[in-house]
Description:
Layout: E1 4-12, E2 30-33, H1 45-50, H2 52-70, H3 85-109, E3 113-116, E4 118-124, E5 127-132, E6 144-154, E7 158-160, H4 164-167, E8 188-192, H5 196-207, E9 211-215, H6 227-240, E10 242-244, E11 249-255, E12 258-263, E13 268-271, E14 273-276, E15 280-282, E16 315-317, H7 328-343, E17 358-360, E18 366-370, H8 373-378, E19 383-389, H9 394-398, E20 405-411, E21 417-423, H10 427-430, H11 432-439, H12 449-454, H13 465-473, H14 479-483
Parallel strand pairs: 1-2, 1-6, 2-3, 6-16, 8-9, 8-14, 9-10
Antiparallel strand pairs: 4-5, 5-6, 7-15, 11-12, 12-13, 17-18, 18-21, 19-20, 20-21
Helix pairs in contact: 2-3, 2-5
The structure holds flavin-adenine dinucleotide and nicotinamide-adenine-dinucleotide (NAD).
Organism: Ornithinimicrobium cerasi
Cofactor: FAD
GO molecular function: nucleotide binding; oxidoreductase activity, acting on a sulfur group of donors, NAD(P) as acceptor
Amino acid sequence: MSDTTHYDLVIIGSGSGNALVTPELESRRTAVIDRGSGSEHAFGGTCLNVGCIPTKMFVYAAEVAHTVRDAGRFGIDATLEGVRWRDIRDRIFGRIDPISEGGRDYRRDADHTEAYLGHGRFVGERELEVEITLPGGRHEVGSRQRVSGDQVVIATGARPRVPDVVARSGVPFHTSDTVMRIDELPASMVVVGGGVVAAEFAHVFSALGVRVTVVTRTERLLRVLDAELSQAFTDLAREKWDVHTDAEPVAVRRGGDGVRLDLADGTSVTGELLLVATGRSPNSDDLGLDVGGVRVREDGRVEVDEHGRTSAAGVWALGDVSSPHQLKHVANHEARVVAHNLLHPGSLMTFDHRYVPAAVFSDPQVATVGLTEQQARDAGYDVTVKTQRYGDVAYGWAMEDTTSLFKVVGDRRTGQVLGAHAIGPHSSSLIQPVIQALSLPGPAGPPTAHELARGQYWIHPALSEVLENALLGLDVAPYEDVTAGYDPSGEDEQQPETVGSAT
Ligand SMILES: Cc1cc2nc3c(=O)[nH]c(=O)nc-3n(C[C@H](O)[C@H](O)[C@H](O)COP(=O)(O)OP(=O)(O)OC[C@H]3O[C@@H](n4cnc5c(N)ncnc54)[C@H](O)[C@@H]3O)c2cc1C
Ligand SMILES: NC(=O)c1ccc[n+]([C@@H]2O[C@H](COP(=O)([O-])OP(=O)(O)OC[C@H]3O[C@@H](n4cnc5c(N)ncnc54)[C@H](O)[C@@H]3O)[C@@H](O)[C@H]2O)c1
């Protein structure tokens, strides 16, 4: 056991936690503790190693395969001759692994910072013991190191949750932590879960030629989305994958070419490989939080206030371990807030969770921000909605699109947008103007739907015209009425000039 080494700042978790060490914090003595992510126990957290980045690199390769298969519709004859899985995998991790190793070495070698590569647990107030489990740091594997900090940040993320019926079965299975490193593509795969991870991996593997079965206990895939989009996604998924909704595995055993899952409705499904994608639990257990005086919510998230402070003085938390949103852009935002707050205790910044957007990089892609139609109705708004088809704008014609939609939810009385939900190519980018309008309101509040549509140019004939048309299609007061008497300078009685429509 080592003596306790004292730091200005101790960070547990090298994902968004590592990004905390901004230039302003770099002069402080900082310890970063991390036990590694995924099967390689890599430094740098989920997003870099087993989350956002590699999945989207696989998604891109899947889309290339899909484009080749689909080319005939456009008069281009092409044949997908094969998929070199190992080449795809090795290209992706050949790029990611060196970044992870470089990040670890930088933290180990930089002035003022130290990397402790192992599992950390509180052993007292702002004091931790780290069981060193990984090589690559300065501490011997197997040793136990004690560190303490003036401030401690918990950024330990979340891990895949595995239903007991799978965990206890003894049948080999994968999660998002391991499935991207497999050596060979299986012929078939059963995905348990109907959320984001399931939707993205089902797309990747099916586009690369794997026969995919999806089993989810909800009545639709991507159940948390606006119901119209969730239904549209489920309908399209059924055309490509064998989708079992309202279904839960009650027994898992070896069978068929690999695994057999008996479902509660008496049917069964088989596949060569089993992928479990049934949610992620915060890494708040096995951290000794009770010893550190840190309270945890019933759902397992570390309890934080709007500034990121936990119940223990000088201990902060951010990202998946504490946030209501398990998203990297949210974890990054929270890290920026906490970094500021560590340096400016007299003027604390607050987390902004008002308009958190999200996207699902599946086939089709889905994006969402703000209230769903049902949420807006439940909240008592005078709701108006417009669902615009991609196929109704010029770029949608070019794409021969027949299935993609952009839906906006508005408040009839104020004319303001309450939410936007899109399903189709590039929806994660197309939705950004709505995120901006909601998040950066002018002095008179967010622009109305018609102001957003008519107060700016929309490049013609870009796909973004689908959003322009959706906004214009909302049954709200026309732009002229909303802007009547509008006088931005306070001097000019004239109305602002409206720009012409691109449609
Ligand atoms: C397959 C997948 C795809 C995703 N795609 C997207 C996406 O496209 N867009 C998006 O916004 N989000 C995506 N996410 C979610 C995103 O990855 C997470 O929200 C984000 O990475 C959380 O960051 P974090 O810093 O809170 O935690 P993490 O990045 O998970 O970092 C926590 C670190 O702490 C370490 N740790 C935990 N406990 C201890 C301990 N006791 N001692 C030492 N170390 C410990 C862990 O090993 C890990 O390295 C995806 C997630 C998955 C699983
Ligand atoms: N593109 C992105 O932003 C992205 C991508 C991947 C993951 N993530 C983040 O990771 C989080 C976790 O993703 P996830 O897909 O694992 O969780 P999730 O909460 O999105 O979905 C879990 C799904 O599994 C189903 N389920 C749970 N237990 C089941 C059981 N026993 N049998 C059958 N179905 C069961 C649930 O009903 C749900 O449909 C997401 O909430 C998201 O925030 C984000």
